[in-house]
Amino acid sequence: MDETQELGKRAQKLDVLNARFTKSVLDSFSWEEYEKCCGPFADRYKHQLEASYIQILGFLKENLWKEFDKIKEEANLVERLNKLEDIIRQAKEDPSNAPLNTVPQPDQTFRSLRVKLKFEALAKLREEETKLRAENEELMKEIANKSENFEKKKANVDIALREYQEAANVTESIPMEALEQVIDQIL
């Protein structure tokens, strides 16, 4: 953090919040819990454990603040919060420039409501379009299958018709007396 940079009201509140957090972390690290963790060493080395507990608390406090200051510096929080302070102060001094203090006009409100309704209707239409496209694809597949079946049946009918015509031509070319002799021989 730049030492010449003055802490604004919000930056000071940020430090207060970190102080509360650090205090709650340190308070949650109680001697009783630490003593339980040490188990059988707690009675035997009580003075050494008390000294190490105090060192750990000091280390935690110092490092929590260092990490907090590092985050503040990396994110440039103090400068950003100070800029926010300036924007708020300027808005209070000159309300005409403050976009937060503008009251929407009735026509703006109606327009925004209409836009919302139009977006909702558009979403419904898109959903319906998706359903119709899927249904259309199914119908097109069905039509393609039926057309294929029709072409197969048409080809079969054409083949049968040609065979019939060939048989009819053959029977027409054979004289009637020869046909009667063939029929008599078969019977």
Automatic annotation (TrEMBL):
Signal peptide: none annotated. Its main location: nucleus. It holds the Pfam family Nnf1. Residues 118-167 form a coiled coil. One of its GO terms (biological process) is chromosome segregation. This is Uncharacterized protein. One of its GO terms (cellular component) is nucleus. It comes from Phascolomyces articulosus. Keywords: Cell cycle, Cell division, Centromere, Chromosome, Coiled coil, Kinetochore, Mitosis, Nucleus.
